[in-house]
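Our working data are protein records whose layout never changes between entries. An example says more than a description, so a record of this kind follows.
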Amino acid sequence: MQQGTVIKSTGSWYRVRLHEDGEVIDARVAGRFRKLDKQLTNPIAVGDVVHLEIDEDSDEVTGAIRKIEPRTNYVVRQSPRKKHQLHLLASNIDQAILIVTLIDPDLKLGFVDRFLLMTEPFNIPTIIVVNKADLYDEDLRDYFGGLSLIYERIGYQVLLVSAESGEGLEELRAVMKDKRSLIAGQSGVGKSTLVNAIEPGLELRTGEISDYSGKGQHTTTFAEIHELKQGGEIIDTPGIKNLSFNYLAPRDIAHNFREIFALSDECRFGGSCLHRSEPGCEVKESVEADDGRVSELRYFSYLTLLEETEEQNYWERKKV
């Protein structure tokens, strides 16, 4: 048995970098694995540390994965094809980097809040990176200032960068140094172009914005780990179209909007308050007073997610 780290998942085969000598081999799953008490489309994630038996008798060295080491954390999303199942994006990461743009394609703040709902339950530090700064006029830069204020107030780092002009790239490199970073974003935000600018020579495949739809084309098919010359690793993930949360209960939504959770103790009903129509709700009062503790935009995202979750009946949630 040897130990290694899964660096790429293609569904049926996994690429594994062996810890002993750094050799990369293909491996299959041998046996069944416990899947986090949930119905998962994939039992193993990129970033998993696994134990495998090596088969050197065939023309090409391959492995059989027999065991998965306990994960320090993981990022999971609702499967885009099977709504009652979940898909493991990655595990054992130091931080997540969400890449967005203000235009080309236009920013959807709700998507940012949905992504944070994936990382917050595991206390995974998340940096919001606004790309394509070279396209922004004074009004858009003012908009960025307001956006960064909303998220920096509640503890998220926000960076303005441009893969084209190089603005902000050194700061982003410093953030990524010696850490394993999950890189994510919707198609078309320039994720691969930005990573290529950070790490010349990596040459991730890039795509263009569709003139017809105004949306990006998928260029990454499977999650994959890439090593950085400066130290550290990135996990490149496929472009995300949308995020749903049928595996969460309404209380999970409330507990993972960090500024809302921080105020819950001051509500009349404490931790059981959903901060929507309850009397004596400190969160509602903060929003109405516009005192800066809870952004009205974030609160709107919260209410939208709460409504979506409640629309899924008990049995749908129990199937996950």
About this structure: The longest strand covers residues 2-9. Residues 2-68 form a domain with the OB fold (Dihydrolipoamide Acetyltransferase, E2P) fold (CATH 2.40.50.140).
